[in-house]
Amino acid sequence: MVKVKVYVTLKEGVLDPKGVTITQSLQALGYKNVKGAKVGKIIELDLNSSDKTAKGVETQIKEMSERLLANPVIEDFDFKVEE
Amino acid sequence: MVFPGSNCEQDCYHAIKVLGADVSYIWHRSEDIDGFDCVILPGGFSYGDYLRTGAIARFSRVMRAVKKFAAGGGLVLGICNGFQVLLEAGLLPGAMLPNTSLKFICRQVNLRVENDQTPFTSLTRKGQVLAMPIAHYEGNYFADEETLKALEQNNQVVLKYSTPSGEITSAGNPNGSLKNIAGISNKDGNILGLMPHPERAVESILGSTDGQIIFRSLMESLVKS
Is residue B16 part of a domain? Predict the structure, then answer.
């Protein structure tokens, strides 16, 4: 069993209304050094991939992220494989 | 078109019946959509809006048929969630972000017609202002600068949010959409996606009949062709 965490975040330059709201709320609470916040998603995948090499898993996760997990118009993705 | 979670298909069905055309539902598992002149992707919450709005619906079996239908010049109209599905499917450019207010907005808005040459707006005139309701949380249209420029150059921006007198200002923009964009078409003009609901504005009891002109335009375009 392999565990993978996929991180999906908004691209640079894409307005993030939730991030703006969090920034303003933290500043209102007195955390004046907060200059920005970005909200993303973490998707945890459990893979039954005994038949796959580490490289095979990475290739597959990249494909999954490009096809479904992230929208390339507005989002970037990154992932971490945890055995 | 009916996806699990669609909830405006009956309104669309009713609107088209009221306007006197034949209409029937297409289930998302359908393999082919032969025999139809136009397909409508209705509003709602297909697949619960899980992951992203429209992200799962784009992979449904019927969407393969829709792509083929559209490539052959068939008329495709995506309303609200249907627009989001068309964006995710890559049939229209761009993506939707949450409204800048982070609120679900359900109210009447004003739309200025930017392109009256599409099959969906052929009975309108450029600059005409139409009143229709919106009902969405994620209708804040986004595209990169290059795409926006191409959209405007190719006359693909069909409807913009405006003030009642037709001014394109931030006061007339309910959700933060770039350039006040409310509806866009593909290059060929046979696919239209819009966030407002024309099907909820076809009878005076609904508060506006301005939505009729979208359906009447597409019916007339079909009859002409």
Answer: yes
- B95 CB near a chain A CB, below 8 Å? yes
ipTM entry: 0.83
The pLDDT tens digits for B53-86 are 999 999 999 999 999 999 999 999 999 999 999 9
Cβ-defined contact of A15 to B59 (cutoff 8 Å) = no
Catalytic residues of B: 80, 197, 199
Closest CA to B220 of B1, B21, B12: B21
Chain B CB contacts of A12 below 8 Å:
none
Domain with B90, as residue range(s), is 9-224
- Look at chain B and report how many structural domains it folds into: 1
**Residue B4, domain member (yes or no):** no
What tokens were used for B17? 């019946």
B185 belongs to a structural domain: yes
Average pLDDT for B165-173 = 97
A81 has which bridge partners? Answer: A4
Task: Give the C-alpha separation, A61 to B61, whole Å.
Answer: 23
Asked if residues B94 and A73 have their Cβ atoms less than 8 Å apart, the reply is yes
Instruction: Encode pLDDT of A24-81 as tens digits.
Output: 999 999 999 999 999 999 999 999 866 678 888 999 999 999 999 999 999 999 999 9
By C-alpha distance, which of B183, B189, B212, B206 is closest to B80? B183
Q: Is residue B3 part of a domain?
A: no
pLDDT score for B68: 96
Give me the pLDDT at residue A49, please: 67
- Residue numbers of A between 42 and 71 with CB closer than 8 Å to B: 68-69, 71
Q: What is the CATH number of the domain that holds B87?
A: 3.40.50.880
Q: Do A74 and B97 touch (CB under 8 A)?
A: yes
Distance, first Cα to last Cα, chain B: 23
Rounded to two decimals, the pTM is 0.93
